[in-house]
Amino acid sequence: MPIQRDDPAYRGQSEYTPFFLKIYDPVILGFFTRVVWRCPTTLLVERYRRHIRPQHLDVGPGTGYFLERAGLPPGAQVTILDPNVNVLEHASGRLTALDITAVEADVLKPLPLDRTFDSAALHGVIHCLPGPLTRKAAAVANVAAVLAPTGVLFGASILGSSGSHTWLSQRILTANNRRGIFDNLGDTQEGLREMLGASFRHVELETVGSMAIFAATNPRP
Ligand SMILES: C[S@@+](CC[C@H](N)C(=O)[O-])C[C@H]1O[C@@H](n2cnc3c(N)ncnc32)[C@H](O)[C@@H]1O
User: Fold this and answer.
1) Which of 58, 69, 110, 151 is the most buried (most CB within 10 A)?
2) What is the CATH number of domain 11-219?
């Protein structure tokens, strides 16, 4: 069922219109990620390639930019999950070299998936989910529940006010939170670590610019 307007998670995914998805790669990944959040997109691609495995679940795939560069063999099975059908159509249309299954769903609700995965990404998604982190924790728990015992959850997220911000990034952070496309003012590095640690025994987390990059393994039963 499509996400409803009065759902707290609505604003974080409603921005992704067909037009925004067309300009997303150069504007968001080419400019904002590198210049505003000060995290090189090449570094994010490298981390993505490091952690991704065949039988992958990608939550919030956006344009499919990272999946296209992930180094998966042609025909690899990948499930993409997003409440926004524009995202699912755009990413599926781009990733024709992969065997894509598209699932329209909100990661904050129990996932309509009846199988497990070897890796899962929450890449650029947590800062879009409705805060506080205690509410976002449902997303991590839902993904952990569909990972194999040897599986890995990885991703990146923009930190809130406590993160390393410049004059420019602080203003954009505030504006995006005011508009409701981010809800991350209270997202701290330690809070993210704690949230991941509630569902995984092992958590690695580093910060680059205003972003936290993480990988979590050994999902708790
Ligand atoms: C900032 S984009 C990140 C896209 C891509 N993963 C990347 O790193 O470039 C956020 C993505 O998360 C999705 N999203 C937002 N809220 C979501 C939710 N509640 N459940 C699943 N996906 C969500 C959006 O629709 C969008 O595809």
Assistant:
1) 58
2) 3.40.50.150
